[in-house]
Fold this sequence. Notes:
One of its GO terms (molecular function) is ATP binding. The protein is of the alpha+beta class.
Amino acid sequence: MTAALTADRPAATTDALPISVRNITKTYGPVHALDDVSLEVRSGEFLTLLGPSGSGKTTLLMVLAGFTRPDCGSLRFGDREVIRTPPHLRDVGMTFQSYALFPHMTVAGNVGYPLRLRKRPKAEIAERVERALETVQLGGYGNRRIDQLSGGQRQRVAVARAIVFEPQILLMDEPLSALDKKLRDQMQIELRHLHEQLGMTTVYVTHDQREALTMSDRIAVVNHGRIMQLATPRDLYERPANRFVADFIGESTFLPVQRKGDRVYFGDTALRHDMAVPDARELLLMVRPERIVLSPDGARDGANNFSATATDVVYQGDTFLLHAELAGGHRIALRGATRGVELSAMPSVGDTVTLSVAPEDTVLIDGREA
Ligand code: ADP
Ligand code: MG
């Protein structure tokens, strides 16, 4: 989210509780579902847990909600230690990986459930349910049955139920994974607006990197129950800390490089870069395909220039993809816009081409994959 949007948030949201997770471990037999996880979620932040299936995302969300007790560690909401607090006293709204709606109840029955659990008066329940339904654009749907709703509408009901008691913290576990792509794109924008409007501290789970980049203030990349990197979408994409993160987010080419003194070399070429060299056993140069420039007139001043042979050229509508082989047999991929490029200027297979990478796009990473 941009700074401007953050500044526009209503004043009522400034007291949203921050979350502090310290050294939380949860094992199931030999499986470390969570392996010494520490993380801070800022007040009012939209933070996403992103990782492959089985990486521990749901387990961490269940620990935050209070449905799973970790083996050890501490959990604070604001100043309050809540690790022993039962779920209904945590002031947390949650949507589950399956919608977990009650099929035999009406929409209003489902949305009002958390309030009935909290023994709120009937009139208040009716009013809050209608307000929550309006927030998710389902005003007037209270009397419908769940099985009369589309997937997107059910998802909205699940969100309405999570926010109906105006919790300080909202947790969402892959809420859009069952929806088709078009609806998912639309709901991503809706959920972002909802967050801007309500301002509660939000932890969102997805395995979809693009969804995470679209929605989040910051993203924690999770693998094998550990946090591989926690950063803004832009920093994750442009400065991934290790190969796992670089591989999981976006496309990339990795080339082996060597450190000699205070320079880093690819083959005989000393690289120009503007980042600190990571202290890693195996060092890699990462380049994103769209950050490589095809230089028809040879080397570019100030850039890293690589001579290569085109092995494959694919026209893909908005972009073209070029595969090329560098000295030493290393392969590299380049993606360019077709707009403004005359087709005749695109290289042919077998052509020698010069590929240029600016110093700011020359990213050195730790070769660690897990
Ligand atoms: P994710 O949500 O990222 O797909 P989970 O948190 O559901 O991952 O699971 C993390 C790991 O913990 C997986 O290996 C999973 O099989 C294991 N796990 C999760 N819950 C249980 C459970 N109740 N019993 C046994 N193993 C579990
Ligand atoms: Mg899960």
